[in-house]
What we know:
It is a single chain. The protein is an alpha/beta fold. The chain has a seven-stranded parallel β-sheet with strand order 3-2-1-4-5-6-7, with helices on both faces. The protein has helices spanning 18-29, 42-56, 70-84, 107-135, 156-176, 194-207, 211-221, 231-242, and strands spanning 9-12, 33-37, 60-63, 89-92, 138-143, 181-188, 253-256. The longest helix has 29 residues, at 107-135. Strand 5 (138-143), helix 5 and strand 6 form a beta-alpha-beta unit. 42% of the residues are buried. It has a single domain, classed as Rossmann fold (3-Layer(aba) Sandwich). InterPro entries: 3-OHbutyrate_DH, NAD(P)-bd_dom_sf, Sc_DH/Rdtase_CS, SDR, SDR_fam. It comes from Parvularcula lutaonensis. Keywords: Oxidoreductase. One of its GO terms (molecular function) is 3-hydroxybutyrate dehydrogenase activity.
Amino acid sequence: MFEDLRGRKAVITGSTSGIGLAFAEGLAEMGVDITLNGFGDKDEIEENRARIAGEHGVDVRYDGADMTKPQEIRDLITGAEAAHGRIDILINNAGIQKVAPIDEYDDDTWDRIIAINLTSNYHTIKAALPGMKKRKFGRIVNVASAHGLIASPFKSAYNSAKHGVVGLTKTVALEAAEYGVTCNAICPGFVLTPLLEAQMKDNAKARNMSEEEVKAKLLNDAHATKEFITYENLIGLLVYLCSNAGSGATGYPYAVDGGWTAH
């Protein structure tokens, strides 16, 4: 069904670990050439880049653009277009988190979270969309969160950014619909990523709880399934949205959250 993905070209922000790296592997398995992006250990990034390329027979390149710097974001897009000829798929996944009461929040942290989690999406889309419109094909997938649909305490910046991502997704979908370009959001529940592990430590401190208590509370209060969301749960949806089969789906925030937003 998804043979049409073979030979497509994708840019995935925040793809050196966690969900973004899993998405890179999932699309590479479908035959998609990838531009990775993100921070981390240089040797580990290169190891993952080479491994994905070797295992799946696709071209995988890396760009370390900082998602707080608009010019570097624009250069990421133009560099990927120059290297691969075009961008068919844009996945905005870069994100950071900070858990704290709003009256104790650091202003610089607020600005950084909004910049990386929301504003970077604006810059990548603005840069990539003209080429997609010209070619009459494009798939934009923004990784929002269940927190783009509902709120939790102590996550004011993250909730604000992810709600903004959902709104941006809908607007871009409407503007691009007549050009063969779709724009959707994936809204995961709790996935055991490095970001969540750090978040649980902060949450334990904010709530004066142990990390195991926080983990149990997350699942009991949120997921009806009482299970964490896996990368595989998300990759299947991503592949569908990026394929020709997903051409009729646009402007929607898809919750993959173990029933959390069904409450």
